[in-house]
């Protein structure tokens, strides 16, 4: 359970290459998500951005250029744009549409969830209030991350 | 074109009548309103025209009679003159034929003489009859008659001489005869002259009368034509006014309709805005709560670690420090957690209320009896725990949204069971009655009841009434009211503290017929 460090280079497992882009405007949430991901034993690199513009920038120019496989953890409530817009942008871009997107947000509205899946989101997780549930959710996400096969991003 | 119509509207609408107090019904006929008065003014020229035409007619008829009389008089005068002239002619003829007899004794003269003589008499008589109405002429005739009689006597005398064969004796009387004839002629001349004077006067009168008749006819008809024209103009104006008023009314109507439509739209928007506001606020409030809960849990982990350290090495801390770590900190964390959980519940309640308006209602035929029975099954454990029984009257079918009805009546039953009196076995009674297009379902209990002062309050969100000895956030009845409104109905509460409550829920028999479904499926939650 010693899991500090925002960015941490991965070990030797094959999914260690995968970079997790966490788009989350709430620093507290980001910290809690990261703590729990680490607790779940996932030690991939986590890049944290707090707004949609930086997220899109990271996706199109930064990370994708390095041809590294990646995965996006996306919050829907962002200060500058809706997470849905980012999701739409990702899934309509031929180079980026294979990147797995996990929606991790406070909204548990069924329509919102449906909409995200319709747009091509891979997983939708509601941030639960009860911490235990939250931890469990992230733990499951960690397990999911450990088995998921992420395709390589082609620029 | 019925001017009374406009008058009637002013009677029924106090605003149009200039804000005057309402008059009794009949008064509006006695005292016409402004519109009615204007309508009357429109008809006035027509009525006056009609009256003038009638008056002109009467006057003309009278004038025609007068004229006729004048003409008759003229004719009469002419007859008098003619008869007088004929009389003179007959006298002259008698004179000359007698002279012919004296000269020739030819029998042809006798015949003519006799004829002229008889005619003279007859004509005198005729003349006397004709001037019977004129005393002056009568006086003249009275003077003429003896003169004529004398002349006629002279004729007889000469004639007797002629018959006796004394022609020379007859010839000698010629001078006397001539003088008498002259007298008669003079007198007749006076009669004729008087009659001519009369004729001139009567002709002038007849002419004046004819002129008057003409003037009267022309003037009267002109006035009548003028008034009819005015009347037509007034009626036309009135018709145009009515038409304009009609189109104004139409315009106002259209405007009103569009205003209602825009108000409705504005209300809908405002409603939607409130819902979105509730949604966004409650949503955004949850975000910090996640942090508070999360880091409280993290703190709990830290506290456990610290407690473990204290456990392991019992002598590292003072008693106060141990107290802080082992007792105060968990207590504080517990309060934080409980408050956060409660806050989350409240926010969720707001979220649910805001979602309520966005969920599309799906009407289906529902057996209310079966619905209540299934609710009773889900509430069985609570009902058994409180020794509560549910009685149901036969309930009518309804076409509505099943989920909404389940939540609505589930909440009401739950509420009733929750607030029973501890010493009295619970009795819940569900009944219904028909209210035209609506059904009123009554859920009654014999519970603790709600004080009159609190009866409005209980429907407000996060408000509760009575002793706060039951768990709850004051959400249930607010939810119930929101559901009832969403279904297009209304809810009332009748209750007496300590005796029980009755919730009367009025719902449309068929929400397919209710306007609430219009706002369904707006689906704009971004």
Order of helices and strands of chain B: HHHHHHHHEHHEEHEEHEE
Radius of gyration of chain A: 14 Å
- Mean pLDDT over all positions of chain A: 76
Q: Quaternary status of these chains?
A: heterodimer
Indicate the low-confidence ranges of chain B by residue numbers. 1-32, 515-526
Structural class of chain B: alpha+beta
Strand order of the largest sheet of chain B: 2-4-5-7-6
Rounded to the nearest angstrom, the distance between the terminal CA atoms of chain B is 59 Å
Question: Strand-residue fraction of chain A?
Answer: 5-15%
The largest sheet of chain A has its strands arranged as 2-1-3-4-5
Order of helices and strands of chain A: EHEHEHEHEH
The residue fraction in helices of chain A comes out at: 25-40%
Describe this structure in words.
The complex is a heterodimer of chains A (155) and B (526). With 155 residues, chain A is of the alpha/beta class. Chain A is built from five helices and five strands, in the order βαβαβαβαβα. In chain A, 39% of the residues lie in helices and 15% in strands. A five-stranded parallel beta sheet of chain A has the order 2-1-3-4-5. The longest helix of chain A has 17 residues. The radius of gyration of chain A is 14 Å and the shape is globular. In chain A, 37% of the residues are buried. By secondary structure, chain B is an alpha+beta fold. Chain B is 70% helix and 9% strand. Chain B has twelve helices and seven strands. A five-stranded mixed beta sheet of chain B has the order 2-4-5-7-6, covered by helices on one side. Chain B has a two-stranded antiparallel ribbon with strand order 1-3. The N terminus and C terminus of chain B are likely disordered. Chains A and B meet through α1 and α5 of A and α7 and α8 of B.
């Amino acid at each position: 359970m010693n899991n500090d460090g925002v960015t941490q280079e991965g070990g030797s497992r094959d999914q260690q290459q995968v970079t997790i882009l966490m788009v989350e405007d709430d620093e507290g949430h980001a910290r809690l998500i990261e703590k729990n991901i680490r607790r779940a034993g996932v030690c991939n690199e986590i890049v944290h951005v707090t707004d949609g513009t930086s997220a899109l920038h990271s996706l199109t120019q930064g990370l994708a250029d390095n041809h590294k496989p990646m995965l996006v953890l996306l919050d829907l409530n962002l200060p500058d744009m809706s997470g849905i817009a980012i999701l739409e942008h990702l899934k309509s871009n031929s180079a980026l549409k294979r990147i797995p997107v996990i929606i991790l947000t406070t909204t548990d509205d069924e329509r919102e969830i449906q909409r995200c899946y319709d747009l091509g989101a891979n997983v939708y997780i509601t941030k639960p209030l009860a911490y235990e549930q939250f931890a469990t959710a992230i733990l499951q996400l960690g397990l999911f991350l450990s088995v998921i096969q992420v395709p390589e991003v082609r620029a | 074109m019925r001017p009374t119509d406009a008058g009637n509207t002013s009677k029924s609408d106090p605003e149009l009548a200039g804000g005057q107090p309402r008059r009794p019904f009949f008064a509006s006929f006695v005292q016409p309103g402004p519109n009615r008065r204007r309508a009357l003014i429109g008809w006035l020229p027509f009525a006056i025209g009609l009256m003038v035409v009638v008056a002109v007619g009467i006057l003309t008829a009278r004038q025609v009679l007068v004229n006729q009389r004048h003409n008759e008089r003229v004719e009469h005068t002419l007859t008098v003159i003619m008869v007088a002239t004929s009389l003179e002619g007959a006298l002259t003829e008698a004179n000359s034929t007698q002279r012919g007899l004296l000269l020739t004794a030819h029998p042809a003269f006798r015949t003519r003489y006799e004829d002229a003589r008889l005619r003279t008499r007859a004509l005198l008589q005729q003349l006397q009859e004709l001037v019977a109405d004129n005393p002056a002429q009568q006086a003249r005739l009275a003077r003429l008659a003896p003169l004529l009689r004398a002349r006629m006597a002279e004729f007889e005398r000469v004639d007797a001489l002629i018959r006796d064969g004394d022609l020379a004796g007859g010839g000698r009387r010629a001078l006397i005869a001539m003088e008498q004839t002259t007298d008669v002629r003079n007198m007749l001349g006076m009669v004729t002259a008087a009659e001519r004077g009369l004729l001139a006067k009567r002709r002038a009168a007849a002419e004046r009368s004819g002129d008057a008749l003409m003037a009267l006819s022309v003037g009267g008809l002109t006035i009548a034509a003028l008034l009819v024209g005015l009347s037509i103009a007034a009626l036309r104006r009135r018709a145009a006014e009515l038409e304009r008023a009609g189109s104004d009314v139409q315009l106002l109507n259209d405007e009103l309709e569009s205003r209602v439509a825009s108000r409705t739209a504005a209300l809908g928007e405002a409603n939607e805005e409130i819902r979105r506001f509730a949604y966004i606020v409650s949503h955004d409030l949850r975000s910090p709560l996640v942090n508070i809960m999360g880091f409280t849990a993290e703190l709990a982990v830290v506290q456990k670690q610290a407690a473990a350290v204290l456990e392991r090495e019992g002598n590292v801390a003072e008693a106060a420090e141990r107290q802080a770590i082992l007792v105060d900190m968990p207590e504080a964390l517990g309060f934080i957690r409980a408050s956060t959980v409660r806050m989350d519940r409240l926010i969720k309640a707001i979220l649910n209320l805001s979602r309520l308006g966005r969920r599309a209602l799906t009407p289906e035929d529902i057996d209310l009896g079966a619905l209540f029975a299934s609710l009773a099954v889900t509430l069985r454990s609570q009902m058994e725990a409180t020794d509560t029984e549910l009685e149901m009257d036969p309930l009518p079918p309804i076409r509505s949204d099943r989920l909404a009805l389940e939540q609505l009546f589930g909440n009401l039953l739950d509420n009733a069971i929750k607030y029973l009196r501890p010493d009295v076995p619970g009795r819940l009674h569900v009944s219904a009655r028909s209210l035209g297009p609506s059904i009123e379902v009554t859920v009654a209990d014999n519970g603790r009841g709600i004080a009159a002062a609190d009866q409005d309050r209980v429907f407000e969100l996060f408000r509760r009434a009575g002793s706060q000895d039951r768990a709850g956030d004051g959400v249930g009845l607010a939810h119930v009211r929101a559901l009832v409104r969403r279904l297009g109905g209304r809810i009332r509460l009748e209750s007496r503290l300590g005796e029980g409550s009755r919730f009367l829920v009025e719902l449309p028999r068929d929400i397919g017929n209710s306007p609430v479904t219009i706002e369904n499926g707006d689906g704009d939650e971004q």
